[in-house]
Amino acid sequence: MPSLLRSARSTGVIAGITLAVLIATGLMLALTHSKSAARQQRLVVANYETMGLMREMVIAVQDAEIGMRGFLLTGDISSLEPYERARLRIETNMRLLEAMVAGDPDTTRQFQEFRSVTAQKFEQLNATVGVHQLNGREAALALDRTGAGRAMLGQIRLLGDALVEGQRLLLARRVTALRSEQEQADIAGLLVMAGAFVCLIVGIYIVVRSASRLERSQLELAGRSRLLQATLESLRDPIFVVDDRRTVVAWNEAFAKLAQWEPGKQAPPTLDQLLSDRSPATRALLLPLDLGAMSPKGSAVVRVAHDGRDYEIYRGEMSGGGAVVRCIDITEKLHDEAALRQGQKMEATGQLTGGMAHDFNNILQVIRANLDLLKGEVGDNAAMASRVQSATAAADRGARLTQQLLAFARRQPLTPQPTNVARLVGDLADLMRHSLGERIAIELKVTDDPWNAKVDAGQLENAILNLSINARDAMPDGGTVRVEVSNATLDRRYAALHPDVTPGPYVLVDVGDTGTGMPPEVVAQAFDPFFTTKGDGRGTGLGLSMVYGFVRQSNGHIRIDSAIGQGTSVKLYLPRTEDPVPEERSDPGSSVSGTERILVVEDSEDVRRAVVDMLTGWGYRVEAAEDPDVALAFLEKDPAFDLLFTDIVMPGTITAVELAQHAQRLRPGIAVLLTSGFARGLIPDHTRSGYPMIAKPYGSDALSAKLRSVLSNRRPTPAVSPAKASPDRVEQPMEHSRSRRVLFVEDEVVLRMSTTDMLERLGCSVAGVGSGEAALDLLGQEQEFDLLLTDVGLPGMSGEELAAKVREKYPSLPVVIASGYGRSGTQADRMHFISKPYSSIDLQQALDHAVRNVS
């Protein structure tokens, strides 16, 4: 028994020792596996944090890209703030992420590659911002359009996704290891405390899942917060959100500046603070919204003026209480609306006055023509001659009045040509001194190397004299009139503030005085027709209106700067031209009488009768027709006329210019003279034929001189159409005195118009098209052309390809190619080139050379 007890005790001791060993082993295994599981759990959490940091850095890079693009679009340096914040976030997160992945070589390699590409991306963003600041928005946009930035952003996203995917794979392995440790811990725990271990496993599972959900929720909340803040910061106008406790909970930087509040240093303001006297700006803007009551009235909009600016204040109520408030600066909008209304008013007034002036010109034409006829019949009757002279003076005064109305309406016939404005002003000095009187001092100032302008010199003289006389009237006690000629360039910023301005170089004529000046309300109406501050009988109110219309019709810009007691300055910006100023030549004079046969076409019976009587009295043989259709019937029966004198705007199935073209086909040597009360530029494009024109109303001296000039310069028989010419026949070069019919091919509309004007000034008749295919169509229609002028860069068929086809089909047609790259290609030796940019002299020489050397 004792042996049995000893054996039992021994067995018990052994069992106890074994159990203790098993328990100790189980405890050790449980402790070991618990520590291992805890380490794996930390690694799992680290994996989640690493993935979160990587996603946040990718989002930060995208925020930086958005900030940079906002800066490129707006040019506002404040748009770069998302970019600056993203850079700071990335620098901090880079350090954290580098510490987290330090123990994993593969992840460290991926991280180093991601950091390198991210650094390159920020260097590219910095370079784009620097280019914008140094060379302007267009250069920055050109750098951005290379696509390098987008490629790097895509690479960053791929690297970030790769690192996240690697972390996910590592996470899967660690979760597997964690589960293995947990299973082994389970086995060890079953030896000692299975229930406790089960509870531990459940607790670990709950903690891990809760941590994951919490992390996802935090990331989502942070993303929404960043999106909301980015949206608020993208608005240039102040905006803020106030909650139901009357505290500002969201805002943008514009609001912080308005409220003079420093976020981060001061607590968010309350409504009471915003509406107090400590914040006068927000009090003035928000008080009309009745935000203090916070009553649920729904959305509201009020307009408030503060500190010289106009604002629209929007309030939107939130369902849970509180409101969203936005303050929009509408000062520029109101300014643009006022400018638009003023422009519409001036345009409507111009249409009305222009129509009246045109009809009145026809009436004046009848009166003036009959008065000129009466001059030869009064004989020695002094009283009758005096009456005729008085009536003629009244007609001239009426003509000047209609001319002023047409000038304001921008419908006066102008003859713009390259003009030396500085020389013109110098020549006006003596006339200005006689016109202004001895009490007015005149100061002329001309800049060094002044530019030339493309204007009507006579109208410019009238404008300067008109402004000088206005300046004299503003100085009843005497003073100084200053006329300054300088060079000026109006940039895009100035053009954005003045919609009628085209950016570019201008010749500035500044006429100023030291007079009484004008208040703003008078300056606003100064250009209105018939508006005057002078007494009754001292002015028509058309002086400044005429100057305004002349400058605008000349594609220029006019501005008045004036203040009470400081004088007035009227600035005329006239478009610069690089064409040479023609030499002044005196007319040799001409005889009033003639014996040529003239066909007069005029729809107004009174004007027609007066013109016929005038021409017959001078010895001409005259036939008259009331419209182009009747005139064409005359010509088809008997084309033996020396000159066709026709009004432009008339009823009928054909136009006056089409009539002139028919007449020149029926009688190649016939001269053409057009007349109209409208400006040449207002006639439809197909009538811009280059025919000479005399504006209504005209005097007998002007008409007789114009008739003799046109008759003495009659054109010879036109050249044969290149489409009708035999390919084997060589045409003789055109005489220089003949008007050339030029087919001009240019796809840029503005360049085509300007070159067409240049060719017309050289005496050419131009047909302009925008493609080589259209040019071949015109040639195929058997239209008569003496020369082809084409640009190299055309859509579809190039200029050289067009020239080769024309030379192959019409070898007698001269071809000139305009190019900014000089002579190029295999066809260079067979064609005539002119390099851009070229002047009218260069163009004339190229055309002459091509015609002389055509093969």
TrEMBL record:
<feature type="domain" description="Response regulatory">
    <location>
        <begin position="741"/>
        <end position="851"/>
    </location>
</feature>
<feature type="domain" description="PAS">
    <location>
        <begin position="224"/>
        <end position="263"/>
    </location>
</feature>
<feature type="domain" description="Histidine kinase">
    <location>
        <begin position="355"/>
        <end position="578"/>
    </location>
</feature>
<feature type="region of interest" description="Disordered">
    <location>
        <begin position="713"/>
        <end position="736"/>
    </location>
</feature>
<feature type="transmembrane region" description="Helical">
    <location>
        <begin position="12"/>
        <end position="32"/>
    </location>
</feature>
<dbReference type="Pfam" id="PF00989">
    <property type="entry name" value="PAS"/>
</dbReference>
<dbReference type="InterPro" id="IPR003661">
    <property type="entry name" value="HisK_dim/P_dom"/>
</dbReference>
<keyword id="KW-0418">Kinase</keyword>
<dbReference type="InterPro" id="IPR007891">
    <property type="entry name" value="CHASE3"/>
</dbReference>
<keyword id="KW-0808">Transferase</keyword>
<keyword id="KW-0472">Membrane</keyword>
<feature type="compositionally biased region" description="Basic and acidic residues">
    <location>
        <begin position="726"/>
        <end position="736"/>
    </location>
</feature>
<dbReference type="Pfam" id="PF00512">
    <property type="entry name" value="HisKA"/>
</dbReference>
<dbReference type="InterPro" id="IPR003594">
    <property type="entry name" value="HATPase_dom"/>
</dbReference>
<dbReference type="Pfam" id="PF00072">
    <property type="entry name" value="Response_reg"/>
</dbReference>
<keyword id="KW-0812">Transmembrane</keyword>
<keyword id="KW-0597">Phosphoprotein</keyword>
<dbReference type="Pfam" id="PF02518">
    <property type="entry name" value="HATPase_c"/>
</dbReference>
<dbReference type="InterPro" id="IPR005467">
    <property type="entry name" value="His_kinase_dom"/>
</dbReference>
<dbReference type="InterPro" id="IPR000014">
    <property type="entry name" value="PAS"/>
</dbReference>
<keyword id="KW-1133">Transmembrane helix</keyword>
<keyword id="KW-0067">ATP-binding</keyword>
<feature type="domain" description="Response regulatory">
    <location>
        <begin position="597"/>
        <end position="711"/>
    </location>
</feature>
<dbReference type="InterPro" id="IPR013767">
    <property type="entry name" value="PAS_fold"/>
</dbReference>
<dbReference type="InterPro" id="IPR001789">
    <property type="entry name" value="Sig_transdc_resp-reg_receiver"/>
</dbReference>
<feature type="modified residue" description="4-aspartylphosphate">
    <location>
        <position position="647"/>
    </location>
</feature>
<feature type="modified residue" description="4-aspartylphosphate">
    <location>
        <position position="791"/>
    </location>
</feature>
<dbReference type="Pfam" id="PF05227">
    <property type="entry name" value="CHASE3"/>
</dbReference>
<keyword id="KW-0547">Nucleotide-binding</keyword>
<keyword id="KW-0902">Two-component regulatory system</keyword>
<protein>
    <recommendedName>
        <fullName>histidine kinase</fullName>
        <ecNumber>2.7.13.3</ecNumber>
    </recommendedName>
</protein>
<feature type="transmembrane region" description="Helical">
    <location>
        <begin position="187"/>
        <end position="208"/>
    </location>
</feature>
